[in-house]
Amino acid sequence: MNEKELIPQLFKTEYRKIISVLCKLFGIVHIEIAEDITNDTFLLASETWGLNGIPENPTAWLYTVAKNRTKDYLKRHKTFSEKIVVDFKLNQNQSEEFDVDLSLKNITDSQLQMIFTI
What letter would DSSP give residue 108? Predict the structure, then answer.
């Protein structure tokens, strides 16, 4: 399958899943942040895959890029230090590294959480 066929297919199957996982992290009130990060991820895929070819596991590539973009966003923005860090400190051991859970179970749970929130 070529890039022009693969990206629309992945967009249909993975877009809402990635947004669900990110909304679980940010909260549904910040859905636009999750959408922006997900849109940037697919834009980067279309740019990169056109030049370098399709990666061996395109779905994993999308989730990895979304995860890295999320970490970058959280590091850059004030909201992270003012609101989210406080919650993380309350809920996690300080020595643990921040990580986005991209397991199938968490993706499914995130989607269900969004369905019942909306």
Answer: H
What does each C-alpha distance from 98 to 34, 64, 113 come to in angstroms?
Answer: 17, 14, 21
Residue at 86: amino acid letter: V
Q: Which residue in this structure is represented by tokens 């996690």?
A: 92
d(CA 18, CA 38): 7
Q: What residues of the chain score a pLDDT lower than 70?
A: 78-81, 83-98, 118
Q: Are 57 and 45 in contact (CB under 8 A)?
A: no
Residue closest to 34 by CA, chosen among 26, 42, 43: 26
Tokens 């990060």 appear where?
A: 37
Amino acid 97: pLDDT: 58
Give the C-alpha separation, 24 to 45, whole Å.
23
**In the 3-class helix/strand/coil scheme, how is 45-97 assigned residue by residue?**
HHHHHHHHCCCCCHHHHHHHHHHHHHHHHHHHCHHHHHHHHHHHHHHCCCCCC
**What span, in angstroms and rounded, lies between the C-alpha atoms of 116 and 85?**
26
